[in-house]
Design a protein that fits this description.
Protein name: Exportin-2 C-terminal domain-containing protein
Largest sheet: none
Strand content: under 5%
Domain Exportin-2 C-terminal: 2-194
Number of helices: 11
InterPro entries: ARM-like (IPR011989), ARM-type_fold (IPR016024), XPO2_C (IPR005043)
Organism: Elliptochloris bilobata
GO molecular function: small GTPase binding
C-alpha cells in the first residue's frame, strides 16, 4: 500500500518512528505472527526482508522517551521469540542484527541530541502523514504515547532476558547457537549480564 511505498521512497526519521511505534503497538495487541501475516499479505517476505531489515533494525535507536523505548523493546523481544520466519535456516543473521539493535537501544541512556533531532524533524506537524488513510494519519502520535503502553514491564533488560530464557527452555540450544554465531562478543556479554541480573540462563 501507500504506507510501504512511502517507506521505500521518501522515509523520514519522524515517519519511521511513527510507523514503528504503530507496528509495535499492533504486535503487543495481536502478537508477532498475526502482524507478520498481515504485512506479508501485501507482499511475500515483506516483514522480514523489508520492515525488519531495512526499517526496524536501523530505526530502533531513534526513540526518545523511556515509554517509547519500553514499547519498542517489548515488541522487539516478542518478534525475536515469536516470529517463525526468524527461526528458519538462513535467518540467523537477521535475528542477530535485531537482537544487537535492541541491546544497543537498551544501553543508550544518554538521550543527547534528542531535542535537536526532534526540532530537525520539523516538530509535530501533520504534513508527514498527509494523504494517508485515517488508520495511519496519526502515526506520529503513536510514537509519543500519552499513556504507558507497557505498564507491566518496568525493566526491559530483565524482560528481554526472561523471555529469551523462556524461549530457550522451549527450544533447547537454539538461542545460544543464534547468539554465538550472530551477535558481537561485547553484546553477548551485555546479554549475559542481563540474564545474571534477572536470575535466568539461556541454554
Amino acid at each position: 500500500g501507500l504506507l510501504f511505498q512511502r517507506l521505500q521512497s521518501a522515509r523520514t526519521p519522524k515517519f519511521v518512528r511513527g510507523f514503528l511505534a504503530f507496528l509495535a503497538g499492533f504486535i503487543l495487541r495481536h502478537g508477532a505472527p498475526a502482524t507478520v501475516a498481515s504485512i506479508d499479505a501485501v507482499q511475500s517476505g515483506l516483514f522480514t526482508g523489508g520492515v525488519l531489515a531495512q526499517v526496524w533494525v536501523p530505526g530502533l535507536t531513534s526513540f526518545y522517551s523511556d515509554a517509547e523505548r519500553r514499547l519498542m523493546a517489548v515488541a522487539t523481544t516478542q518478534v525475536l521469540c515469536e516470529c517463525a520466519e526468524l527461526h528458519v535456516p538462513g535467518a540467523g543473521a537477521l535475528w542477530g542484527q535485531l537482537l544487537g539493535a535492541l541491546l544497543r537501544m537498551l544501553e543508550d541512556a544518554s538521550g543527547d541530541g534528542a531535542a535537536a533531532e526532534r526540532e530537525a524533524d520539523g516538530g509535530d506537524g501533520d504534513d508527514e502523514f498527509a494523504g494517508y488513510s485515517a488508520a495511519f494519519a496519526q502515526l506520529h502520535n503513536a510514537a509519543r504515547p500519552s499513556e504507558d503502553p507497557t505498564p507491566d514491564v518496568h525493566d526491559p533488560q530483565r524482560h528481554l532476558a526472561a523471555e529469551l530464557a523462556r524461549f530457550s527452555q522451549a527450544h533447547p540450544g537454539r538461542v545460544p547457537a543464534l547468539v554465538q554465531a550472530n551477535v558481537a562478543a561485547e553484546q553477548q556479554q551485555r546479554l549475559q549480564a542481563y540474564c545474571q541480573a534477572c536470575g535466568v540462563s539461556i541454554a
